[in-house]
Each structure stands twice: as structure tokens, then as C-alpha cells.
Amino acid sequence: MKPLTYLRPTDVPSAVEAIATAPNAKFLGGGTNLVDLMRGDIEQPDTVVDVTRLPLADVTELSNGALHVGALVRNSHLAAHPLIRGRYPMLTQAILAGASGQLRNMATVGGNLLQRTRCHYFYDTTTACNKRTPGTGCAALTGFTRNHAILGTSTQCIATSPSDMCVALTALDATVEVESTRGSRRIAMGDFHVEPGDTPHVETTLAPDELITAVELPPLALARNSRYRKVRDRASYAFALVSVAAALRVEGDRVAEARLALGGVGTRPWRATKAEEALRDAAATDESFMAAADAELASARTQPDNAFKVDLTRRTIAATLRTLSQGAQK
Ligand code: SF4
């Protein structure tokens, strides 16, 4: 590793001032991704601004019933929080499906939002990668693609978004709060991550000098009947081949309300809007659930090694909705 300047501010104004004035600087939270990237020479900041002393580690209930989650809340703490477990079970399940206990104890909410892809070519600096080094090509396009995306891909990059937590936050319509020396702003979760297009190295709409300070979860009665289902090659400590975050309300025998987002298949946390549209007032049956999945997957573009994900996604969506429909009859 090359020498770097290490700063550890204790308040948000000092942190955003530090990043604004230091060229090629990075915020450091739990370090569960950034430190690996620095060890591998994929990220090479000149300055690291350690934000773990900032007062951003609380979960607070707002007067309208929303939950305000500080960016430094550790993943394990968030998953175990009684209000999260009771009101947003899909979020607890998504977090607990990710990484290992030790990593979840370190990883922060803000850092999880910025977690970078686990495409193995991205981490191998001997191979071409447009995301790591723009304009060099994409080794995955002629390589092994079992873990790669089928939705939102481009001719420049087919890497999947790796986070489980972000899939649940996308289904829940969370809002990300950020701050810089220019002030604060709020970004809808659906606008936070971007598809690769011609610029795969740009993964979010966050400016380099903006600090994530919190995530807000809206009050959502529907989310009490929600679930996160993850399919992977190993039972733990593995990234998703396919994951589904879903919430469902059924009235009589028809779908009254549904939320659906996918992981492991998209270049960003994938809100399944076409499937949600297909589910609106549909019969709460396996046939409808499969049809909704088909509507979402019609735009899938597969590689030889990941074509299986289309049917796996279809069946995982249907199985998740079936489970929820059994607990959603009103
Ligand atoms: Fe790089 Fe994306 Fe290609 Fe992977 S899929 S090698 S991250 S450009």
C-alpha cells in the first residue's frame, strides 16, 4: 500500500470540509470493502477520512412513523433492532443473509450503500475492466459469467450489484440523506444507484465530496408482511445468484398491493416495476406470480454461464410471493 494521510474528524462539518479540500480522498466507515480494495490496488486514495467518530449511529423514530437510520449504524445492530424486525422483516432478513457475523459487526449502513461489485475480473488487476480502468474493455464478456447480471447490463459492463441490504431498501422506497460543503440533499433509493451504460465506473449519483449521513425508511404497513429470499451457491457467506425482496397484501383472493426488488441479477439493486404492475389486482395465484416474473424478465440479456438465472429468478419470485400470500389473506 502507498502512504496516505489519515484524518479522523468528530463532527460532520469537519468531515465534509476535509473531503472537499483533499484531492483523491475517500471516506472510511467499517472498512469491510474499501480496505480490501486498497490492499488490491484497486482504490488508491491519497487521504482517508475515517468517519467512525461522527455522531451518526442512532436509529430514531420520526413523528410520522418513519425510521431515521444513521449512516454509521452497524449492519448487525440494524438487523437486530426491534423496530426493523417488526416493521420491515425483509430488511432484517436481507442483512442477515449477507457476509458473516464478524463483517456485519463492522459494516455500516452508509458503507453498504457504496459496496462495490464482486466481479472477479474487477478484483484481478491483470485483466481488462472498464469499471476499474475506464476504456480498457470487459474481461467478463468473454469469461466466466455465472455470477454476472442479466438486467440493466451494457456492452461495457455486466457486473452485478452485490448488496443484499440495498435490495430491501429499494423495495421499501427508502431515502438516502447526504451532506457536503454545499449543503444537504435527499436521494430516493431508486435514483441512488445507476446502470453502467458507457460509464461503468460511475455507480451512484453521489458526488465524490458528499457524505451519506442517514437512510430514512418510510412508514409502510405493507412491509410487515415482507420477506427476503436469497439463493446462492453456499448456505452462508456467499453473494446472491438471485435474491428477492417482496412485500404483499392480498384482499379476498386478489393482490391489493405488492413491492418487489431483485438482487444478484441486476447491475444495480433492481426494482421490479413491471412485475409490480402485472401483479396489480391480479389473482393471488402461482400463475399470476409467474406471469409477473415473466413481465420483468422479458428484457433479460444473458450470457452462456448465467442463462439459468432467468428461470431461477422466475421460480424464486413465485415462491416468495406464494409464501407471503399465505400470510397475507385478509
Ligand atoms: Fe469490469 Fe464490469 Fe466487465 Fe466485471 S463486468 S470485468 S466489473 S467491466
Note down, in words, how this protein is organized:
By secondary structure, this protein is an alpha+beta fold. Among the domains are: 1-52, Uridine Diphospho-n-acetylenolpyruvylglucosamine Reductase, domain 2 (2-Layer Sandwich); 223-328, CO dehydrogenase flavoprotein, C-terminal domain (Enolase-like, domain 1), CATH 3.30.390.50. 30% of the residues lie in helices and 20% in strands. The chain contains 13 helices and 12 strands. The chain has helices spanning 12-21, 34-39, 75-80, 82-87, 89-96, 101-106, 109-113, 120-123, 165-171, 189-192, 273-279, 286-297, 308-326, and strands spanning 5-7, 25-28, 47-50, 59-61, 67-70, 175-180, 183-188, 211-217, 226-231, 242-251, 254-263, 270-271. The strands form 3 sheets. Strands 4-5-8-6-7 form a 5-stranded antiparallel sheet. Strands 9-10-11-12 form a 4-stranded antiparallel sheet. The protein has a 3-stranded parallel sheet with strand order 1-3-2, covered by helices on one side. Helix 5 (89-96) packs antiparallel against helix 9 and helix 11 (273-279) packs antiparallel against helix 12 (286-297). Iron/sulfur cluster (SF4) binds at residues 117, 119, 121-122, 129-131, 138-140, 157-159, 200.
